[in-house]
Amino acid sequence: MKSLPLLRILFAFIFVFVLFFTGCNPENAQAIIADTDNNTTKPVETTPNDSNEIHSTLSYELQSYYADALNKKGEALKSSLHTIISDSAIFLTYAQDYDLLSKTDKDFSKPSEENLILFYLQESVTADSRCGSDGSNCWNREHMWPKSLGVGDNPLVNSYTDLHHLRPSNVDVNGFRGNKPYGDATIPYNKIDGFYYDEKFEVRDNLKGDVARAILYMAVRYEGDNNEPDLEIYANDFSDTRPAELCTMLRWNHIDPVTSAEIKRNDIVQSYQGNRNPFVDDALWADTIWGSQCDLNATDINGSGIIHSGADTNNTHADIADTNITTSGEIANLYFSEYVEGSSYNKALEIYNASDVNVSLGDYEILLYTNGKTVPNTPILLSSVVLEPGKTYVLVHTSANIDFQTQANQSTSLDYNGDDAVALVYSATQTPVDIIGQIGIDPGSAWINGSIGTLNQTLRRKTTVTAGDIDGANPFDPATEWDSFVQDTFEHLGTR
Q1: Nearest to residue 214, comparing CAs of 134, 160, 130, 278?
Q2: pLDDT digits over 460-496, tens only?
């Protein structure tokens, strides 16, 4: 019996040893739970596994940061996130912001140069070209939530100097926007393609998510405590006294998914300011808090009837009025047009809309059947963006190389290997739309025919293929419908 203390010490040592070496791997960006079949690792979900609930994945570190917010909804989630990002915030002076914007918005394509990216223009300029006494052809600090609409002009208050809504902007564009609320507008802004204005200011689609997530962050961060302003936006409030209307921001959040550049910026801001933007870490939290107030499937939320025709080839909501959109219960002709099973986390899937109508991708999900299982892992939910006919949508693993991330419309946990079946299904009825592999069959390391296989290769759908393979029970031959390319080929993602 006297040996029990020694046994306890030994067991405690083993527990700490295992915990440290399995749960704190700095090379693994996601929190993981080892799958029982040792096929792969599964991200820990932030909400219960329920097909009616939005869920996503957070890394081990972010689960710790957001611990008090996990598995909450609505006002409870908003309140917890407010406490977390307020308590961890560090005050920065307005002078510090000028210097730090050259780090948060640095042009990383020019690592040896002191350049930054102007937010609206998306142009690279030298960091020392910020505005001085002449105030022309230079950049200054844009308050995305305008000072006159609630932030105030006191440089000693966090809201005034908060880097999560401060961006470097060309001085003329900043002045033109002024304090116009963000929203759908009617008049093309001739200085920037894809921008519109009237009493509102509309950015092009590939910036809409950045804007929305900054505004939503401010609405959660600032609740009127600690002598800070109470910043709110509301559904159906299109007045010029708010920086945006709530449902428009939720829609913009869906139109433009989080990119690797946003994630990197969030990390850099935290390193100086202490707190994070939760909607960059989990964009679907916005729906969990406010989604019940808005019709997220509406294509014309503000009732304006505004349609921008042909002005911006990247505008995913352009010409919606002129093209039908699939209705509830109608299954579109979607299929996987590219499959990447590369080194480490370099995994990607490209979805192609082969139909003649716009498709709301939020009606579909991806299922992974690992190691011959007949029951899938947790579904991968697609963002509720509208995919136009003949266009593609690219999903990339959250921990893939930066070259892959630049091609992504959505970063998610694509934890499949060469021996796992991958299915695209219509969520409401779980109807298969396309399947790679054979469900219920473990092929060994991969499905292979000659030199073409599902392991360590990029597969691109042959141009002769016009529809997906909906029979997951049939033997799968990758050579029949796919062309093979060397491992980690990604250059054609998004260009079917």
Answers
A1: 278
A2: 999 999 999 999 999 999 999 999 999 999 888 988 7
- Alpha-carbon dihedral angle through residues 41, 44, 45, 49, given to the nearest 10 degrees: 60
Given a contact cutoff of 8 angstroms between Cβ atoms, the answer to whether 201 and 244 are in contact is no
> Which residues lie closer than 8 Å to 399 by C-beta, 6 or more apart?
28, 29, 30, 344, 345
Domain-ending residue, one of 288, 320, 352: 320
The sign of the CA dihedral 494, 111, 207, 210 is positive
Question: d(Cα 233, Cα 248) in Å, to the nearest integer?
Answer: 10
End residue of a domain, out of 320, 345, 378? 320
Structural domain range at position 49: 1-65
- Structurally, the chain folds into a number of domains equal to 3
Dist CA 367 CA 430 (whole Å): 10
Q: Could you tell me the CA-to-CA distances from 486 to 140, 154, 340, 420, 489 in Å, in that order?
A: 45, 56, 10, 19, 6
Given the structure tokens 């200054």, which residue do they identify? Answer: 140
Closest by Cα among 312, 324, 389 to 355? 389
Alpha-carbon dihedral of residues 234, 238, 242, 243, nearest 10 degrees? 100
pLDDT of 379 > 80? The answer is yes
388 near 374, Cβ under 8 Å? no
| Residues 431, 171: Cα–Cα separation, whole Å | 52
pLDDT, one tens digit per residue, over 179-215 is 999 999 999 998 999 999 999 999 999 999 999 999 9
What does the alpha-carbon distance between residue 435 and residue 422 come to, in Å, rounded to a whole number? 6
One domain, residues 252 and 333? no
Same domain, 313 and 356: no
Q: Residue 405: which residues within 8 A CB-CB, separation 6 or more? A: 259, 260, 396, 411
In whole angstroms, what is the distance from residue 236 CA to residue 247 CA? 7
Task: List % helix, strand, coil for the chain (3-state, nearest 5).
Answer: 30, 20, 50
Q: In angstroms, rounded to a whole number, what is the distance separating the alpha carbons of residues 352 and 468?
A: 10
